[in-house]
Amino acid sequence: MSKKLLVVLLVALFVGSAFLACKKEAATPVATEPTALSVWAVIAAEIPLVPEEIAAWNVIERKTNTNLNWNFVSSLSEVKDQQFNLMVASGDIPDIVAYYEKSGGHTTVMKLGSEGAFVPLENLIAQHAPNLQKRILNDPAVREAVTAPDGHIYHVPMLSALSAARGWFIRDDWLAKVGMQKPKTTEELYRVLVAFRDMDPNGNGKKDEIPMLARRRGEDWAYNLGALAYAFNADVDFVLRDGKVAYGPAEPQYRDYLAYIARLYGEKLIDQEILTRGGNPRDALLSQNVAGVLHDWFASTADLNTTIGKTLPDFKLTHFAPPMGTVNKPFTRIQQSLVRADGGWSISVRNPDPVATIKLMDFIYSDEGIILTNFGVEGQTYTMNNGKPQYLAAITANPNGMGMHESLVSNGAQWKIGMVQSIDYERQFANAIATEARLDYMQNYIVPAFPLLSFTAEEAETLKDKLSQIRTLTNEMSARVMVGAMSAADFANTVSEMQKVGLADVLKIYQTAYDRTIRK
Amino acid sequence: MRRAKSLHDDPALWIMLIPVILYLLLFRYIPISGVLIALKRFSPFLGFLKSPWNGLEYFRQFFSSIYFERVLRNTLVLGGYYLAFAFPVPIILALMLNSVRKPRLKKAFQTVTLLPHFVSFVVIAGIAINLLSPRTGVVNLFRQSIGLEPIFFMQQQGFFPFIYTFIRIFKESGYEAIVYLAALTAIDPTLYEAAEVDGAGRWRQLTAITLPSIMPTIVLMFLVRIGNIVSVSFEEVLLLQNDVILETSEVISTFVYRRGLLGADYSYATAVGLFETVFALILVVSSNSIARRFKNAASLW
């Protein structure tokens, strides 16, 4: 009986699929029916979006003969990762997936790709996508960064135009009030912070200044504060020392950095609630006129001069060089690789038409697509000026009061997909202060970052066990030193605990992965 | 024999039982097979059957990691604080409510103590964190007004178990007292009348009549609580914890959430969850067998 049932089912399946195939074949020669594709994507700004009403994407859909059905998830890392995991676990993967991890990067995408969830793109690109071929396959640096350990490429990345990402900013008007210069060393920075704390630079008669603030990113409270480590030639993460991979927090100079931030925290020079504050303390505290020094993204921070300047006329934030502690040349490793870790998309195996999809992705990488995904539609959001696109008031002075980034996103630009950020976008997105700061950092301070590595499933398994414990120890114990619950010298015990957990194994895996990447 | 007869007599009752059995099978028993992924290197894409076997590797990883001792200790500490401080409160509350003579006053008291139970814990946690904030919290503003340094409560390891227990008491005591109030109403009033005639004061009535009468309920509730120690309220802890105090606030359930759902480390999280279940089972069985030794006290089975 069950055999009979099986036969019936199989017959039904064959007939059904033959019918479907016929239907499809009948549809392709006409080529008027757009390919319907579902897209799962992380939203680029926390605003409501109706993609069907965005002119730029209507053009893209028309030119590529596709009909995209977007499903956006919040960019908050916990929400986005959870949604992604649930989506994969349900087995119902949309045709196109634009996902990046909490810590940035595409290790999970690569791992799932190796297991068969995503389509390898190399052949598709070579056959159907000249623009992707030019910018991904023919550029060794980009190709290396997007190639999974199994040798395949599973995502089309988001490419940026500039490498300077985050840097130091200080309230120029406060410096003038306390009669000091921009700090060059950690000692000068300390004295400036003390002056900010004690000399009432905001002039309200209250001692309510928070001299320095540093935004966290998720659990990673050293995301911005950790930039101080470079002053002591230390690092908060993996770092190269003469071609050998080292773990920054296990090095002795990391304790100099810890001692310094513990001193700042102990004297109430760093935001005392750095570890618990939610929301966006940067915009909140700066507009309350209580914060003086910060390390953050160039463009959006410099932008505050405009937005906060409306209510605080004296408000002036400008950049300064990374401070020097024990090093005698200022430097920072913080930068964004041209392959952005927080953007890119993949084709799932459930995708009904990978060729049409890769053509869509290729179009986004074409000159026309770059304009559409950076500037939108001519006459609506930009105009051509001396052969260069220029944003119109719809973007720069959004009628709904949105900031420039939100305004761009609401017009279909700068989404977290496989797109190319234009240098003209960078020039206009950031105001003059930001551009000056980024050029200064790029020309004078940025040294090579630790490369983006990819690991085999086996390696990733060990890292998940051991590195997660090492990171937990680093994160918690460093926080304890900062708030004064433990001395910086005692961090040596933490390092020996890391060794017990298996730091040596982790470093070996990193070294292997590094050698493999560099040789490739 | 008797059972067969009852099936014959009351088919309707047995039919009514079917949905319950189905529910238990579908949602309680069949999912148990899912624990098998603790022994596999589970990949959601490969699915349950195709994921490769991985033996006891994840148990080894968990037991040898720095997290094992930590989550076990925190779970037991939070559970222990709960039993020691929070468990008696609803009993006392019920006794107090029971001795309020004016019915309207009693109703008012009961409503006030019951109300927090219906407020979402997200709200209560938010209120608590704000009250304890070093810059703007009422507690620290008060400390500052009498010349004391503000304390950053949510950032100090030692405070967490107390804050957690206190909030649990605030939120759940009124609700949990209902069970005891029900038990109290079941006491035969003639017992009190007889005691009064015999000259027993209120204290004597309490110890000789009230407490012994509700003792079975107390023991039963205690047993249920012991079983719950290990799965200490997940969302309560998750909403209150932050990275600085993770060392004293990470419990098994939040750890499973962090590794399993956030980290997509399903197999590892399942292994930890399985450990949690076995541990809870041991606790319940052993406390039940202790309870059975006491005369005229209830036990779960």
What does this structure look like?
The complex is a heterodimer of chains A (520) and B (301). Helices cover 47% and strands 13% of the residues of chain A. With 520 residues, chain A is α/β, with parallel strands linked by helices. Chain A folds into two domains: 33-162 and 339-421, Periplasmic binding protein-like II (D-Maltodextrin-Binding Protein, domain 2), CATH 3.40.190; 166-334 and 449-519, D-Maltodextrin-Binding Protein, domain 2 (3-Layer(aba) Sandwich). In chain A, the strands form four sheets. Chain A has a five-stranded mixed β-sheet with strand order 2-1-3-11-4, with helices on both faces. A four-stranded mixed β-sheet of chain A has the order 6-9-5-10. The N and C termini of chain A lie far apart (57 Å). Mean pLDDT of chain A is 88; it is low at 8-30. With 301 residues, chain B is an all-alpha fold. The model of chain B has no long low-confidence stretch (mean pLDDT 85). Chain B has a single domain, classed as MetI-like (MetI-like fold, Orthogonal Bundle), CATH 1.10.3720. In chain B, 71% of the residues lie in helices and 0% in strands. The interface between A and B is medium-sized, with 36 and 31 residues.
Oligomer: heterodimer
Overall shape of chain A: it is globular
CATH architecture assignment of chain B: Orthogonal Bundle
Low-confidence stretches of chain A: 8-30
The domain count of chain A comes to 2
| Largest interface, chains and sizes | A-B, 36 and 31 residues
Query: Which structural category fits the helices and strands of chain A?
Result: alpha/beta
User: What is the name of the CATH superfamily of chain B?
Assistant: MetI-like
Tell me, what is the CATH class of chain B? Mainly Alpha
Supply the CATH superfamily name of the largest domain in chain A.
Periplasmic binding protein-like II
Distance between the termini of chain B: 23 Å
What's the helix count of chain B? Answer: 16
Q: Could you list the spans of chain B in which at least 5 consecutive residues all have pLDDT below 50?
A: none
